[in-house]
Specification:
The longest helix has 27 residues. By secondary structure, the protein is mainly alpha-helical. It is built from 10 helices and no strands. It is globular, with a radius of gyration of 17 Å.
Length: 257
């Protein structure tokens, strides 16, 4: 029982901090740790991770919105595009047996962490004011389609893809990018968790579900509060270090499995 609690604590807090700071999907951290160290069924582990993601993303989105760092309008547009093209990507992937990129999310996390340390995002909010509303809507739809297709086709990396595209392509400053990302993830994680539990037809390990949700929520809440109060330069460095450490942790977990 002590080993289980330690794994739940490390997985949940790590996932929560990654979510609150950078919009990292909890599924990228929690599910491999449950599978590797506690020998959970992979399908159930992903369901528990997605359920943990819902509350963590929701509380993070609320915190970012409270501090004025969330673009709800264009986030909703991107959300529908992400959901639609996730289905498209998933369908195409089902027609191509043997096509898998399970390590995509792991290395994406590590590389993005290094990127934030070496080349921090110092964009100001005013940068978006130069774009017309029509341009913003079109870009949100197109970028949502790219993110959704990659998530559906590869099965991972949604949070990292959103953060990369929101900052590098759409020109969001870091805090608004993370806030908008976790807003979208709250809905996509809920959809994923509900479908997992419905298809599985049985209750998950309730202890694991409770503690993973609790620790992920706490980690996300603390990280989101810190992120919204920290200066941009400090936030970039801390985000880079956290993502790099989580990336290295997941590489280690992959190696052990």
């Amino acid at each position: 029982m002590i080993l289980k609690l330690i794994v739940y604590l490390l997985a949940g807090m790590g996932a929560g901090i990654g979510t609150g700071l950078a919009g990292l999907s909890a599924a990228a951290v929690i599910s491999p740790m449950l599978i590797t160290f506690l020998h959970f069924d992979p399908y159930q582990a992903v369901g528990i991770a997605l359920a943990s993601d819902v509350l963590a993303s929701a509380v993070s989105a609320y915190t970012y919105k409270k501090h004025g760092n969330l673009d709800v309008r264009h986030g909703v547009i991107m959300l529908f595009s992400v959901l639609a093209f996730t289905l498209v990507g998933s369908y195409i992937a089902s027609l191509l047996p043997g096509t898998t990129m399970g390590n995509f999310s792991v290395f994406m996390t590590l590389l993005l962490g290094i990127k934030f340390i070496i080349r921090p995002v110092m964009t100001e909010k005013s940068a978006l004011e130069n774009k017309s509303e029509r341009t913003k809507i079109i870009q949100s739809l197109l970028c949502g389609a790219v993110i959704g297709f990659i998530c559906g086709f590869i099965g991972a990396g949604g949070g990292m893809m959103m953060l990369l595209i929101l900052t590098s392509v759409l020109g969001y400053e870091l805090k608004t990018a993370v806030g908008t990302s976790v807003f979208i993830m709250a809905f996509t994680a809920f959809t994923g968790a509900a479908s997992h539990f419905f298809i599985d037809g049985s209750l998950p390990d309730l202890g694991a579900l409770f503690f993973c949700i609790l620790f992920t929520f706490l980690g996300a809440r603390v990280a989101a509060l810190f992120a919204n109060k920290a200066p941009a330069k400090t936030l970039n460095r801390v985000t880079g270090v956290v993502l790099s450490l989580l990336g290295l942790l997941m590489v280690g977990v992959k190696f052990l499995s």
